[in-house]
Amino acid sequence: MSESETLKFSFYRREKFVGIVSLIICLLIYILRLNSAVGLFKDDAWYLLLAQSISSGNGYQLLNFPLLGITPVYPPGMPTVLAFICYLNPKFPENIWLLKSVSIVSMFFLGIMIYYYFQKYRNLAKLPSLGIALVTVICPAFVFLATSTLMSECFFTALQIATILVIETYVKKASYSKFPYLVLLGAFLASSAFLTRTIGVVIIGASVLFLATKRLWTGVAVFILGVVICILPWTVYKKVTFQEPLNPLVTKQYGVTNYNDEFWKLRAGSLERITVADLPARFLKNIQQISELNIGGMLLPIAFRGARESGEEVLGMTGVMDGNLGTKVFSWTFAIIIALGFALSLRSGLTLAELVVLMSLTLIIAWPWLPFRFILTLFPFLVFYALTTFQQLQLWLSKIKNLVSFNDEWLIAKIFLLFLLIVSFYDHLGYIQAKKQTNPKDQPQWIYLNRVYLEMFTYINEKTPIDSVITTDNPALVFLYTKRKTLVVTERDFEAFNVKYLVKTEINLPKTTVLGTSILGKKLLYHNPDFNLMVLSVNDKK
Q: Is 469 helix (H, G, I), strand (E, B) or coil?
């Protein structure tokens, strides 16, 4: 073996070793942070309820509601994937660990795809590519979503990156590809992303536009045809099954209407509405939220909250996570750095990723909802744009005589990646240490909250008849753990649905009105003072 071959082999072995060690560390973080919490986010409770409905042969309907046959408005992607797990192991809550494997496996595939993408299509060296992959996989927000919820962001992000990889590969091979089979695969992945989260419409639109800019008209036609074939069955099914007079009833169950109606609300779920004149204020507010809080909350979350709340920034950076002047300056600084990196990337040519980022941001800024979870799915690209700015900064500094001289043009970028990795490891270590505390109140608050919920559900199971009907602010979660029929109705509809109990799961200060129902004079059966959870009998008086 020649000297060059020996060096090449040695480098390969070192790369392999680094990759294996990185994989083990990431796996340990996920295993040590894994817990039994599910459904606290509300949306993930609906995903699991629908998955149970599909896997049990009942179709896509709300099993919790006293009247069967009501179709939900949630897209079927995540429930369908979870349904496969429920079919293999239908025992809940014993199967929670298996259910969470969907997001965990998605994150590890996401890391592999990120590593490959930035080397193959962005000409990034192996070490920075590995750094972006690692920073993404151990991002506290992603780890929290995968280990503490059944939310769809991890799965969706993997589908989005997979689509970008496949379409970019097709564009590269289009000149000699006899049949655009890669476009069909891309159409399937993009459609799956859309059927998982509706914002997936961006990856569909961006892919069509990207193929059109490359003048690959056959690819455009095949892609559109593939998307139509994939999405049409769900569109027809929803049109046929989700209609009046059930529509208002379903809307009431979890406050979701059609997207056009939601767009013109002050905030999603709010009763207040806006006009065209109010849109600029919304855009500016969302831009401020992203730049002032969300960027910092993703890159340096430990500065905005303690390790016990690690990952809870995905709930929306409000309250104690509003940050101070220092954290806001940090967030704004890196928002500018990322924007500059985006502009610098465009100089090298337009890629599908830039279209996805630009179109996603346009939609996120316009939408009346907290933007953090939407921005999170773009995280690896945001990190890449920051690295691009640092690379250009170092190249500029190297041109100034006697100021700086480094052979590695990515040195500053690598230092930044190392900083992000150290901060994330520190955050996870604090969370894992808190998880080991013997006093439940000293444990991560999400785990403690889940414990408190389970205590309330145990009370409901022991003290209420199985045929009871409950009105509650989280009907899916209450049904999953108690199998009592649940719905969201006010006091005037109690008799019509034979409602016997009111269960409050929202965490807030004591209120005299819950779900439009006055609790004054009603019999309080169960109360947790730490989170103000309640079970009341709506018929019995005090």
A: strand
